[in-house]
Amino acid sequence: VEKKQVLYTLGELAKLLDVTLSGQADIGISGLATLKTAGPGQLSFLSNPRYTSQLSNCHASALIIHPDQADKSPCACLISDAPYVTYARASQLFTPVDPVSDTPAIHPTASISASAKLSADVIVGAHAIIEDRATIGAGSRIGAGTSIGRDVSIGKNSILYANVTIYHQVSIGNNCILHSGVIIGADGFGFAFDGARSIKIAQLGGVRIGHDVEIGASSTIDRGALDDTIIEQGVKIDNQVQIGHNCIIGKHTIICGCTCIAGSTTVGSYCMIGGASAFAGHLTIADKVTVSAMAMVTKSLGPGAWSSGTGVMESSIWRKNVVRFSQLNEMSKRLRELERSTDVKE
Amino acid sequence: VEKKQVLYTLGELAKLLDVTLSGQADIGISGLATLKTAGPGQLSFLSNPRYTSQLSNCHASALIIHPDQADKSPCACLISDAPYVTYARASQLFTPVDPVSDTPAIHPTASISASAKLSADVIVGAHAIIEDRATIGAGSRIGAGTSIGRDVSIGKNSILYANVTIYHQVSIGNNCILHSGVIIGADGFGFAFDGARSIKIAQLGGVRIGHDVEIGASSTIDRGALDDTIIEQGVKIDNQVQIGHNCIIGKHTIICGCTCIAGSTTVGSYCMIGGASAFAGHLTIADKVTVSAMAMVTKSLGPGAWSSGTGVMESSIWRKNVVRFSQLNEMSKRLRELERSTDVKE
Amino acid sequence: VEKKQVLYTLGELAKLLDVTLSGQADIGISGLATLKTAGPGQLSFLSNPRYTSQLSNCHASALIIHPDQADKSPCACLISDAPYVTYARASQLFTPVDPVSDTPAIHPTASISASAKLSADVIVGAHAIIEDRATIGAGSRIGAGTSIGRDVSIGKNSILYANVTIYHQVSIGNNCILHSGVIIGADGFGFAFDGARSIKIAQLGGVRIGHDVEIGASSTIDRGALDDTIIEQGVKIDNQVQIGHNCIIGKHTIICGCTCIAGSTTVGSYCMIGGASAFAGHLTIADKVTVSAMAMVTKSLGPGAWSSGTGVMESSIWRKNVVRFSQLNEMSKRLRELERSTDVKE
To answer: Residue A306: its chain B contacts at CB < 8 A?
Structure first.
């Protein structure tokens, strides 16, 4: 293991994270690690009580821990009522490199329209393209090879990693993070069939993305047909998610990877959408709804937790059950017939 | 609401769309909007009779409407036997900006092989790459950062948006639209297992894409192993669709987002493939087949409508039903046993 | 059919492939084709006995064939105990063009940091970007527009096609193939909810990819939260696969297209993971496990073959069965009640 450089003392971290220090303030911390792998100089955390038993073998120099468990800690502590949140804040202090670039501010190979407006401290990577009348707010960073279309507006302190594509007339808020491969504002999927072929419906709306939104690698959000597609503030979207035209995703909703939401569906605020789930179009999902992974959502959902699908089983057993599934309505009828014939009430 | 510029008079639109005008020809139209949101200067449409009740509150200056409903319109009308098709055609008249670029024709930062052949009026965006012997037909537009491989042929009036990737030896027809992130001609997924490791099967075929094909953002179509992968004319493919090597997709078929079609499957013409569905390899799907969203297609399909999966329900109920699904074959046997013991005939 | 150039004699191929020649050594071979489409000058193969009947109509000049079937061949043979593996090796001899570029070695438009270290025979395409301290091993090829982040290490003879994105601190082994749109090292999806909003957990780990790994177009592999995400040697990943942070994929495992593996799941070696399947996080999958296409894997799996889902059926029948699925637990109870009332033992 290489010797890591001390980045903070524990006392500095306690102040930065606004938590209580229990132990020596001058302990040097070089990085973060899990309970299992942490060694000297590293800060770890206990959030899930399931892992309490790992404390005895923990070699970290310090722990972020809940006051109720602090007495079990084998080392110095940063005591927090919300250890996982404190760990999240701490992790941000240890980000090793600027994700895009630090110098020069505007790479000489970037292609920037004369009518684009960039705040003075914007960073633009190599071969990035910024088209006419785009505006980029203070502190935002545009990754290498990223393409920003005409009349796009990007707020302050947002990060677009390498090879992102933003079509024309899209607005993105402050403090957003868009990972590589993200595509915002491609045409929604709309056609009118004239009896022989599909006539394209031009997608004349845009996309509006609020503040503090993160969008994972290769996710796609289509522009609206007439009105805009809207992603409200604080929404977090994982990789390879597809959001169709005119969807509205309510604030602070979480959408896990590979989810597909068809057009004109409205998802409420503070929802938790499991990965690889699929939503039909024109649905309304209430606030604070939980949808489990791989759910097939074909109707609007009220509050609560929702699921679909069947669990994994040995293939030999599954094959037989699948045949029975195709006979399920018939089985139900036979069951009812039996009940009738034996005078058992339903 | 900002004052929008009049783009057409209603009389001009009636002529351009080849429909009957009912009302004043000199009404100025600045844009399109839904029945709900349209205001003065905007053209709306009524296609789905479900929305007829919205007519009374509609503030549009004009409506595209079916002759049977024209008497209910509160404003001027463009009367069409196919209002949705007319709306589609109208939408194309209101596209606000050229999606790629208007000037200069060939961006000075584009990297174009000396052996590539571009028709005189081709537009190429910044940092685009066109490799040896590629040919680009008249009026086609290559977006910023898009990469066109060797020996690729692109027809007339096709649009490739920013950051598209076309591998070598791919042909694309006229009037195609390929959205950002599309990748055509990556290797099909083929390996021979030698008992210890997977030996790559070089993918020696290409991809042939017909006229009038649209392919959504981040969709991928693999090159064939020996023969070509084929997308016939008029096919429309939504975002994040994966089409494996040696598939053939029949003309005018529609494939919704996040669908996965494994290698060597042939899909017929005029099919409607629901989103997030998955097809096994080596299947044959008939013409005009409808497959519902998230269907798992593990066998060849004849004509008709096909589905699979289970509908969404409250998670607490779902958990119990899922357990029963794993007992379904056993339940079926018990049912039969009961029938036997009670002399009920199946 | 155009006259193809002879690339090898059959005698040369027998030597290169280390198999037995039966027939004339001087037969000229210009390419490979399937049994059905092969013509004069082409080499075909018979691997699956199902296709034996096609031998009689085969017009190939030579066949790769198993010794047990060689007497049925209508033409010269390359006799192999593993015809499909021999075909795989042969296919590599017929790859028509260098997939990235042949000249010049470093395209003048590439943007390469002064601190990056490239071996002398590395090829870098137009507009590629190689950031600080990245190292590229001998014989590796970096496609046009591809972005290589800081402190990335790429081994020997690896190919990254056009428009690949590698974030900082990722290591990639020798002989790897990464197709266009691949994104390695984007942030894992981790947030701590503070009661009002999601606090980002900085993703401080990296990604380590072993030797001989192939990754299909638009697949994404996230960097670890604290430890690294690991893809072991010989793993083959198809298109549009998503692998979450801190996953470990065991050596020589095959993952078919559109599969989604949530964070911290460990998949064993030599597994076969069907396409469009989805794995929950924090699972452990044994070695040599087979998972069928579109399976929903919500628990750890021991050895064997595993499946889930329901098969496709006519939509009209499906609709009725789906309703019954939602009543399945109740049906089970009614069945038990009937059994009790009729004294039938389970």
So the answer is: 312-315, 318
